[in-house]
Write a structure and sequence with these properties.
- With about 400 residues, the chain is α+β, with helices and mostly antiparallel strands.
- It has a domain of about 60 residues: Roll (SH3 type barrels).
- Helix content is about 45%, strand content about 15%.
- The protein is built from 14 helices and ten strands.
- The chain has a five-stranded antiparallel sheet with strand order 4-3-2-1-5, with no helix packed on it.
- Strand 3 and strand 4 form a beta hairpin.
- The protein is globular and about 55 Å long.
- It starts with 5 loop residues before the first helix and ends with a helix.
- The chain binds zinc ion.
- Zinc ion binds next to helix 7 and helix 8.
Length: about 400
């Protein structure tokens, strides 16, 4: 059996997509000019959230609909979609908007863990770009922080070298690392929804958080005491480490300007990027040498899909619609083809890929493209699909031989 079931793969990031579609569905009116930078003023906004809890959020307004609906960004980087009906009060403070400091964000994450009913005490590890709030002990949290930082540096170095200028995250990047799968399921159910609990970890586009659990934890295992212990325990589960890397890559992509949260980023592209970077590098203490290596489990899936033509998604379908990622019977093909397409484009046509990424970067928030627009945009950079379809299958199926 495949190490990742198609259902689980579909669920892994479905939190992200569903949240976006929900917001898009409510954005029925024309928003203000999306090219304008967000207003830098701090606003204190009171509203009833989707669970009818009254909240007052210190935020900046990213978008304002003609009917008074708001897209807010909190000081922790969380996005809130507030309809006119939910809105209660809006207080212009006159102060400038500032993200929470790493220390403040750590306190907030600890409060959230406690509010979600988790009794284990938290520890917060702050690194240069991340805030890791963990119930898995300091050693594991530090190990995560160091892995995330190495990935951060490699991710930015890759794009600089490719000629795509990214920015540093404006917000400290939040990660919640629970001590085991049970706590993770409890947190995920309340933070997102029950089916998020079945995933092996995820990035939440609305809250900007990655939620993970200690991969070394088992029913009879003692907590790892050193980074060496962690590495030894993880050598047997490299696919699970790939999941961590995958989710952190999503977070880096959405916080560096590679993608924009709540814009219509094609799913094959966001998932393809996460899979392009997900091959773990546990051997190096400083660098990260595995970016762009052939992703063996995805290649295996891709070859199997190629051998089963009825499972293969036509390239046009993959580009035009995200629906296949949410269907259990199509998710494996959708993920493996997205990896293969991204791998092919970055390995053989990187300059074109960068041009295409720049056009996707300009997409406004909360506006969905039509399937035809998506296809047109893709073809205007990469040409007709017939030639490409032949070339990418040939190139990818030759890999690893
Ligand atoms: Zn993903």
């Amino acid at each position: 059996m495949s190490r990742y079931k198609s259902g689980a793969v579909g669920l892994r990031t479905s939190c992200l997509l569903v949240a976006v579609l929900t917001v898009m569905a409510t954005a029925t009116l024309v928003f203000s000019n999306d090219d304008d930078p967000p207003p830098p003023r701090l606003q204190r906004v009171t509203f009833n959230d989707s669970k009818s809890v009254t909240r007052t959020i210190e935020s900046r307004v990213l978008l304002e609909a003609q009917d008074g609906g708001l897209l807010l960004e909190g000081r922790d980087g969380r996005l809130w979609n507030v309809t006119p009906k939910q809105l209660q009060n809006r207080d212009e403070t006159g102060d400038s908007f500032q993200p929470l400091s790493a220390e403040q964000l750590g306190e907030q994450l600890s409060r959230e863990v406690a509010e979600f009913g988790i009794k284990t005490s938290t520890q917060v590890v702050v690194t240069k770009h991340f805030v890791v709030c963990s119930t898995a002990g300091r050693v594991y949290a530090e190990w995560c922080g160091s892995l995330f930082e190495r990935l951060h540096d490699a991710f930015h170095a890759y794009w600089t070298e490719a000629g795509l200028e990214l920015r540093e995250s404006e917000f400290p990047l939040p990660a919640v690392v629970l001590k085991d799968r049970t706590e993770f399921a409890e947190f995920a159910t309340k933070h997102d929804r029950p089916d998020a609990a079945q995933a092996p970890g995820y990035f939440s586009e609305p809250t900007n958080r990655i939620i993970l659990f200690d991969l070394t934890a088992g029913p009879n295992s003692t907590p790892a005491k050193t980074a060496g212990d962690i590495r030894r325990k993880l050598e047997a589960s490299s696919f699970n480490v790939a999941t961590m890397v995958h989710e952190v890559t999503h977070q880096l992509a959405f916080n560096s300007g590679l993608h924009t949260r709540y814009a219509d980023n094609p799913r094959w592209l966001t998932e393809g990027m996460a899979m392009f970077f997900e091959v773990p590098d546990l051997d190096s203490r400083t660098g990260w040498k595995t970016i762009g290596r052939v992703n063996a489990p995805r290649l295996k899936d891709f070859r199997e899909t190629l051998r089963t033509p009825r499972e293969m998604l036509p390239l046009a379908d993959l580009i035009q619609s995200d629906a296949s990622f949410l269907k259990a019977e199509q998710a494996r093909a959708a993920y493996s083809e997205s990896w293969a397409l991204t791998f092919f484009l970055l390995k053989t046509r990187r300059d074109d890929a960068v041009t295409y990424l720049k056009s996707v970067q300009r997409k406004p928030r909360l506006i969905a493209d039509s399937p035809d627009d998506r296809l047109r945009e893709f073809q205007s950079t990469f040409g007709e699909l017939d030639t490409l379809d032949r070339d990418w299958k040939k190139f990818v199926s030759r890999q690893g031989k």
